[in-house]
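[recover] target loaded
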């Protein structure tokens, strides 16, 4: 049960309105997380800018796989529902790949290296070993790409933490708990 107000259209602060309206138009509805997050124009717009910038990083399958891996580690049920939905419908990942991503893996070797590295970053709070960094580089990622992976981990963690704190009601199809996958 949500632990904050889910704003109606009339309640959204003016400084959050354009950003929220843009998401609503693109998604087709206003997700509860965003309707709650919009209470703080500073935090909401900063997150939206980061999300928009990072939507150009790597490819959609890798981004969604990283989102699934990070959300699994952080135990964010809301984000797992969102990323499972987008992985299936936008990234066109098959169900087995979504399960693998939640476990920090991928069938594609290059994507697998990125997802494993992202999982290692979140699990170690960024204190990865030389072998971890070398593995992602050897898979073909540049240092700029590695920085993008780290930034994605941070952005997904922000939404995970927000949703774990405020627990907005689910508005995407619920996914199976980690123990059953």
């Amino acid at each position: 049960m949500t632990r904050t107000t889910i704003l109606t259209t009339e309640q959204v602060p003016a400084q959050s309105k354009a950003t929220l309206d843009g998401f609503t138009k693109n998604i087709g509805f206003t997700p509860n997380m965003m309707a709650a997050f919009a209470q703080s124009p500073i935090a909401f717009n900063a997150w939206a800018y980061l999300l928009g910038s990072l939507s150009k990083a790597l490819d959609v399958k890798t981004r969604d796989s990283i989102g699934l891996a990070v959300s699994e580690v952080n135990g964010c049920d809301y984000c797992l529902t969102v990323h499972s939905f987008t992985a299936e419908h936008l990234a066109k990942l098959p169900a087995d790949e979504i399960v693998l991503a939640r476990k920090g893996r991928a069938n594609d070797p290059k994507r697998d290296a990125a997802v494993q590295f992202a999982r290692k970053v979140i699990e170690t709070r960024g204190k990865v070993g030389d072998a971890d960094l070398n593995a992602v580089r050897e898979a073909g990622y540049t240092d700029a790409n590695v920085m993008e992976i780290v930034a994605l981990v941070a952005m997904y963690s922000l939404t995970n933490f927000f949703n774990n704190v405020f627990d907005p009601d689910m508005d995407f199809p619920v996914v199976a708990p980690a123990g059953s996958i």
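[recover] notes: The chain has a mean pLDDT of 96.
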